[in-house]
Amino acid sequence: MAAAGIAAPGTAAGPLLSVRGLTLAFGPKVIQRDLSFDVRRGSIFAVMGGSGCGKSTVLRSMVGLLRPGAGSILVDGEDYWAGSAARRAGMGRRFGVLFQGAALWSALTVGGNVALPMQMLTGLDPAAILRFVRVKLGLVDMADAIDQLPSALSGGMRKRAGLARALALDPDILFLDEPSAGLDPITSSRLDDLILNLRDGLGVTIVMVSHELPSLFAIADDGVFLDAGTKTAIAHGAPSALCDACPDPQVQAFMRRKRPETVPDAQGRPS
Amino acid sequence: MATLGGDWAALSGRIPAFPPDGLAGVARGQALTFDTARLGHWDTGLVAFLWDAERAAAAAGVVMDRGTLPDSARKLLGLLPGKLAPPAAACHRAFRPLDHVGGWVIGKLSGLGALTAMMATALRGGVLALVGRAGMRGVDLLANLRDAGPASLAIVGVVNVLIGAILAFVGAVQLRKFAADTYVANLVGLAVVREMAAVMTAIVMAGRTGGAYAARIATMQGNEEIDALQVVGIPVSDYVVLPATLALVVTMPFLYLYGCLVGMAGGFAVSIAMLDVTAAGYVHQTLDAVPFSQFVFGFLKSIAFAVLIGVTSCRIGLQAGRSAADVGTAATQAVVVGIVGVIALDAVFAIIANVAGV
Hints:
The complex is a heterodimer of chains A (about 270) and B (about 350).
Chain A: E1 17-26, E2 29-39, E3 44-48, H1 55-62, E4 70-75, E5 78-79, H2 85-92, E6 95-98, H3 110-121, H4 126-139, H5 155-166, E7 173-177, H6 185-202, E8 205-209, H7 213-219, E9 222-227, E10 232-236, H8 239-245, H9 249-255
Parallel strand pairs in A: 3-8, 3-9, 6-7, 7-8
Antiparallel strand pairs in A: 1-2, 1-4, 4-5, 9-10
Helix pairs in contact in A: 3-4, 3-5, 4-5, 6-7
Chain B: E1 2-3, E2 6-8, E3 31-32, E4 34-35, E5 39-42, H1 44-60, E6 63-64, H2 71-79, H3 97-130, H4 138-148, H5 153-176, H6 184-222, H7 225-232, H8 236-274, H9 279-289, H10 292-318, H11 324-356
Helix pairs in contact in B: 3-8, 3-10, 4-8, 5-6, 5-8, 6-8, 6-9, 6-10, 6-11, 8-10, 10-11
């Protein structure tokens, strides 16, 4: 009885992340308006759409880098942007972010990059930190690169090192901005496998921004499709479901790699 | 059989190390199995422990039975390599004084050679620019000119006014003892025109503009912008070095003249306020004391300082590394080299002036 009204374990069943009526704008320039979607616990959620439609901006507002113009982002039922800066930082500890260019700290070694969040934000002793740094680098197959500087890494290695750093604080939600952009198909599919393994192994929820079709089909099990023209979400669902069942010509064009004008089938060819 | 229970969160700080004698009672060839029935919430902390256990087991010749672990933990263990990477061999630099000294000398000499070559390219570019056949774009030069000239008037003015005022203060206190008040004008005029205006302006510009050049070029280096220039075939000297250096060469002599004026104005204000001199008397005394040749000498010095600051800071920026820390190092180095270089060059000029009798 006393617990009535307190949203205790009940919320654990709801979506981990909910976006409600989100509108993002830089001054008068609206990027996306009226976005609403839920990210289920343990799912891999894809934010899809063509270049320049505002995918990365949506991600930036979810990880706390851009205050939305309207709407709310709920993490476990708690409004992220309504809280104080300290509260946001506390919630941010549950996030791990892999930036598009990996954004490794160039003055630190790969190991130092993974260690820094633990050194600055936890009370772990150096030996324990080294142990976890080794495990996290081992998980992304970068154990041998622990002493290398980011400038010496290839693109794929940078992404993996960035992923290890995103895992540094054992996040509940992992945000990936274009994880496979700029990688060759084989490296890219290895990274997809790695992301799947991390999700299955650690049970972490993943929100990824991507326009790479192969990796979208391979790993995403839910998603939202953003349109640059109407500046809002025009479809919800897993990429394969959107490809098979979504009637929207924009979505079909994207999912089947066709230019929009060829989709309305004028010559009667099968699409 | 090992029993794992409770929560295993990495950040709790309560993940135990795998006990070194943990497998003491297990014979070779036997299997290490786990009972995970009472395992609570876990993350990479448990994986770290299991990884240690697996390596300990491999070392002891015991087979670790992954089958008794939860599926997800098995998957993660599968991603980890079997062996730890060997720690990087600590690079012990042997004590070879001759090698070190030799390497240092060669490094410095080649640096000097590169600097001279760059200065020659810049000079050639400057001459070509004078006859109107330069490879650089006018807009680049204009942007640099605006940044080096009008934008630095305020700081150069403040520094020189204060220097002139300070000189007048110091002179007034001493010269009053000999009733030689009027000679404050000589002191301030000569000191400002001959040394202070040129050197202080150069030091301000080394800190303000030289540091900015080095940081900008080092950042371009980090973004592969310099590489892009080279690939397209645009000479780095035409796009980066020449406009920057030329902008300093054009603006610094005029900043020097401006520095002379405001420096003498500072001395004038202090003298009028503190001493028994008239405004007309002070001006007359100054005009008498400072010959025109001193201005010419200071003007030429300023040009030399400008070349020094421009070329060295561009050079330092171009040879910087590619990380954020390297940009900071390059900016620091450019300011230090600029200031020390300006003062050293000024000493050389003082000797030349002494010999030439200026």
